[in-house]
Design goal:
2 copies of one chain form a homodimer. With 323 residues, chain A is mostly helical. Chain A has one domain: Orthogonal Bundle (Farnesyl Diphosphate Synthase). Helices cover 72% and strands 1% of the residues of chain A. Chain A has a two-stranded antiparallel ribbon. In chain A, strand 1 and strand 2 form a beta hairpin. In chain A, helix 3 crosses helix 8 and helix 15 packs antiparallel against helix 16. Chain A is globular, with a radius of gyration of 20 Å. Chain A starts with 11 loop residues before the first helix and ends with a helix. Chains A and B meet through helix 4, helix 6 and helix 7 of A and helix 4, helix 6 and helix 7 of B.
Chain lengths: 323, 323
């Protein structure tokens, strides 16, 4: 563990409790549900959302047991959306581990995701907070509506606004909820709640932009999928948008957004390489930095202390992390 | 409308409000979501669950706006589970109307169901009751766990207990929640809440048994599917269980439950006809009557008045209805 990830340490034992609570959600249920949950939890992930929830709650003086319950609800909701996502995309691996849909029938995969939604909602209700429940279910609706919009979009849009809306729905909305729900059960101060929600949104936006950059720049073996796989699937992310803005005359790029979701293999390979080595990468990371700067400013309005310091590290980590 | 369904009249205007509230859940979302919701609501259904919620709430002095919100949450949850069920079963029609999965891709169908789960949870949280939220999410977990158990069961079980567990998970748990949640937001009397929950469970059990009988006895054109379709799909329901108990020597029936989910066409046709004209039908309906009798006794402990009278009619209707 290096200094940029040292913010994980102070909440490590709570994260273990979060994972234990998530795993216990399939107790006394069909054994295959327990197997699915164990499998999904074993595949890991950085647990950045529960870490965010725990640190925000700690900073604002929340009760630890409720924060742990909330963090488990958030991470289980996140995991459930991934189960359905992987089914819909036909993904066979996630973080190098076989997906549920690669091993089970579509029906069993749908129901596993549904079960996890149900248990996530139960955990959210265990926080005993109506505003948490309300935001929790609203956030799920935002995420799903975003996916439906993407699924039904008939052509690639080369549009920053549309991109922002998309990554808000996909990623930033749940970061926002992770921070906001933690605040809701920790303080009555409306200004603090509002500010920390926007903080969560900011780092969520930065997180997704960095992910979208990695899709172009990271090593294929580390990514576990081909470089530029978003573009190959017809998904135009910020590096591509930025490249097209700077190279309006590029013939390959001009074919995007003309009702033509899928360029041929040669064209897409060429375009991915051009974007990868263009200033669009740096431009995109600068955009992520702007979100991080905004987030850091919001943090300054929060109560000072070790938890705020940890959140400052977490915020910087968003753009400094590797894949 | 005949006398046996006159209990629908007193809540008809509230049911319209419930439907309006359900339909409004897709406002400002992707237009195809609105289309899906309109389509699902147009296909109708008897709205027996929201009627139950509204009448129980009225009997126990609940506030009408909260009851309408709750009833919409319950019916939307029910509709969402049907969307995923039809996808998993590959059903092309429900109540004579094309299913979502018959018109859309599996991915879009999964997400439509997910969106409806999210909005149902939001409506449940709008009732401002933690116990309602908690029971709501628990009930979804019970329904989904029941479906997974059925999906993973490797052979037909000829077992009344297993059948009872199955129809509780599939149907009675949501009837129980419809009644219990209405009570939770209407009264603090724990005994009344407990008793009306069991009432809901009783009529839910009776409702599903009668449905399972219809699968053998109703006209194919009215059912919208072949007579005996449960058995054809390897699902052993009460009429089949009862027939096998009474005819242990029947060669076709003996083949069920031997790890052999699907009898050949000839055998299953013969068996369906034998069950259809056997006393197993009457025996099954007597079992449903026993649940209705138990439900009516529980109703007697409730506050007297027009709402209780309506619930008495609703209870009798469960076994007297046509398909």
């Amino acid at each position: 563990m290096n200094t940029t990830t040292s913010f994980f340490s102070p909440v490590q034992s709570q994260i273990h409790q979060v994972e234990h609570l998530m795993r216990s959600q399939a107790e006394n249920q069909h054994p295959d549900l327990q197997a699915a949950l164990d499998h999904l939890l074993a595949s890991g992930g950085k647990r950045i959302r529960p870490t965010l929830t725990l640190l925000v709650g700690r900073m604002l003086g929340g009760e630890e047991p409720r924060l742990i319950t909330l963090a488990a609800a958030i991470e289980l909701l996140h995991t459930a959306t991934l189960v359905h996502d992987d089914l819909i995309d036909g993904s066979l691996l996630r973080r190098g581990i076989p997906t549920i849909n690669s091993q089970w029938s579509p029906g069993a995969t749908v129901l596993t995701g549904d079960f996890m939604f149900a248990r996530a909602a139960k955990l959210a209700s265990d926080t005993n907070s109506i505003p948490v429940m309300s935001l929790f279910s609203k956030t799920l609706a935002i995420i799903v509506n975003g996916e439906i919009t993407q699924l039904f979009s008939t052509h690639c849009k080369i549009d920053r606004e549309e991109y922002s809306r998309r990554i808000y729905a996909k990623t930033a909305s749940l970061f926002e909820a992770s921070a906001c729900c933690a605040a809701l059960i920790s303080t009555d101060d409306k200004e603090l709640i509002e500010e920390i929600s926007l903080y969560g949104r900011d780092i969520g936006m930065a997180f997704q932009i960095v992910d979208d950059v990695f899709d172009f720049t990271a090593d294929q073996t580390v990514l576990g999928k081909p470089v530029g796989s978003d573009l190959r699937q017809g998904l135009v992310t910020l590096p591509a948008i930025s490249y097209i803005e700077q190279n309006p005359e590029d013939a390959d790029a001009r074919e995007l957004g003309c009702g033509n979701n899928f360029l041929g293999n040669d064209k897409v390979n060429r375009l991915v390489e051009k974007i990868r080595f263009s200033s669009a990468i740096e431009q995109s990371l600068l955009e992520a930095d702007r979100y991080v700067d905004s987030a850091l400013k919001r943090l300054q309005k929060m109560p000072a202390g070790p938890a705020r310091d940890n959140l400052t590290e977490l915020t910087r980590y968003i753009t400094q992390r590797n894949v």
